Amino acid sequence: MTWLNPEQVRAAFWQGGLLAYPTEAVWGLGCNPWDQVAVGRLLTLKQRPLHKGLILVAGQWAVLAPWLEHLSAPQHAQLTATWPGPVTWLIPRPPGMPDWITGGQSTVAMRLSAHPTIATLTSILGMPLVSTSANRSGRRAGRHEWQVRYWLGDDVDCYISGPTGGAAQPSTIRDLVTGTRLR
User: Could you tell me which residue ranges the YrdC-like domain spans (predicted)?
Assistant: First the structure.
């Protein structure tokens, strides 16, 4: 059972904190996507370059909907065919999406997750989370809370306990325009 303190989560999130939480296959590391300082902290902790971009994840369609309005009906149909689920889509960059999320690229990565912890988190926050694997770049991703706590320790402001979804691999990544599978 996931243990989640909504007040603690909100406080950490709105104060620029980093959150660690279970996802479909591995533990995720996230923060407020509109807080450039928080995103910078996350990138520094992970030792991840900005140009790679980051994933936005939510557990409710409504949380991502404002960033999907520019898409065509066939593109929406592609998303709804795989969401919610472990498919991350590279979507044409919507107006107003910051460079610190896209890495300056013409796309943004988004996923509508079926994982209950992500659904609860984004419901509490009312917005998507930055979501990347909870590890330093180039190292294996944590599948257990104890691993993430050992590797990242007090650099994470809020740990949300619970099991991963049991998937063997991280989410598939596909390009919405070309249909190409990237991972």
Answer: 3-183
